[in-house]
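Archive entry. Fields below.
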Amino acid sequence: MGIHRGHRARPFEWLAEKTIFLVSLSTILVVFLIFLFVAREALPVFLGRMSSALIQPAIPVAEIDRHPAKELCKYLGLTPEQFAKMDRETLKELLQVKIEAQEEIPSEFRSDPDALANTTLWHYLLRPHQWTGYTKPSFIWQPVGQIKKYNLIPLFVGSLKTTLVGLLFSVPLAIGAAIYVSQLARPRVREIVKPAIEMLAGIPSVVVGFFALLVMASVLQSLLRYETRLNAFVAGLALGFAVIPLVFSIAEDALTSVPRSYTQAALALGASRWQTAWQIVLPAALPGVFAATMLGFGRAIGETMIVLMVCSASVLSWSVFDSARSITTTIAAEMAEAVSGDAHYRILFMLGALLFAATFFSNLIADLVIHRLKRRLEGKA
Amino acid sequence: MKASLDELSRPSRHFRTVRFDFVSFFFTGLTGLATFLILAILAVILANILFNGLPGLSWRFVSTIPKKDFFDPATTGVLPMIIGTTFRVLVMTLFVIPVGVTTAVYLTEYAPASALVTRIIRAAVNNLAGVPSIVFGLFGLGFFINFLGRNLDALLHNPGPVWGQPALIWASLTLAVMTLPVVIVATEESLKAIPPGLREASLALGATKLETILKIVLPQALPGILTGGILAVSRAAGEVAPILFTGVAYYMASLPHRLNDQFMDLGYHVFVLSTQSPDIEKTRSILFATVVVLLLLTFTLNFVAVLIRSRVRKKLRSLA
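PREDICTED_STRUCTURE:
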């Protein structure tokens, strides 16, 4: 027979197919690499190997031989290759520099118990701590100054605050619009409205942030008369603008994928268009609408530029009319100042890893829900 | 049987709703209002920006390279930012289009639909679409600059950091990773819109599967691939967060001309002008004008993409 299948008959074709397969695996590789390299930079903090204490036990120059090479290497903050290149004299000089740096610490910190604390431990990251000079235990994010405070709770609260305002504003609007456009509107209205809302997605987030900062903030303040001009409320509304098109298009998609026979049956039985949409189509597409909200949450909590431009103070407050600093904002604003490899830098990467994990799971759930919904509506499950 | 069906479907006086359905009317109005509100938000944003920005826009503004102090409305310009943004998205397309199109071809033409690998690839694509842009920035810094760049420097025995620092190429690669799902989804959509009959005819005439894909399927799918590319470019052109640590510069005296140069950027410039201006009232006009330039760039691209896509979707619907 003349039909040859397999790679012996067409080696080039075989090779090309394998290449196509390998290239398509790159998406999996990329997701894996993102997690690996963001988490890698944060690893010392996760493992509690970082030390940010202001006053550290110093090794006197004379005792250089009493400590193993590995310990010296870590103490001086050198890589093993750098360490191997140095001779004894340079090492001694480095030890001296280290001691002098310790001596330069202002005297008021010498008696401060906080100066001995390694503020990168989980206890300091997540629990309130009574810092010297404060009257009660508090959550403080303050990565500058002599004693660096890295409490993450104000940032989590800031992210949640802006995200919740954004979702409360955008999800009802977007789902309402999705119901209208997919079920109630005339086809001609639909043809215009859908691309227009997709256009909203085309506005860069830096432009939304700029608009919120220069125009919305002042207008809202004069309307609602709150104190802080730039607050979580303004940021949340602006976030909503960015979330609306996403939630709309996913929800609209889910509503449209409900089979026509459902709608036709309901209408034939005498239901009005609204009754059909509300009692038949929406319940059938509910998982899709839920998934749209999940994706909206992921988008809102990961949005950077809008919150960065609109509010920035890192004070812990649950009021939406106070300023807030979100996780993303903190990373964007402080990465430039953080020294590569130090505690601040690593904690910012840890925030990134947490953010990645949060969106990873919210996307995964949304993905599974949509997948199951599609199968059910197609009558396969 | 047929006659009785016709009888039933004919509008009959007895079945007509007599009562005015207030609830339906109210809620239809409410959802319509939600739609209207979204459109109003869009209109207000665009109108406000155009109204305030167009007067400040001039040929001099878009063709001037500003001096160090770019806050002076009389002498500033945005040419280096336009060029920087253009370069970074062009370099990005060189990476993202081949990889994205190949992945889409695998998913639609080769992948066994129920295989685990296919599902994982799809999950990865969806996941990539939802990763926050700032995390891409961290990835670019951790992987491209700190890992690839530094190791490249060590390999080439560079005396100082040449590749291990923020640069155009790293920003473009970061954006390429970010926009990969956009290209994949758009290409897949257009590949699915091609009638299976075309593939079958080609195979029946003796072409191999690869030949069919290269000579029949891909040329047909070109509009869709183009859409994907344009959407990716428009998305990337407006993104600022991923390039913050991977290549953007606050100020550069010269235009970027090597892949490892830093660059100025339109979106980042909007951020700088609106948050770091010494006198926001004085710089207001150039800020709005810069936003108009950025919007013109992304919207023109978006508009073209939406036009092509709506055509592809119509074709898809007529096939279904």
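CURATOR_NOTE: Chain B touches chain A through 89 residues (CB under 8 Å).
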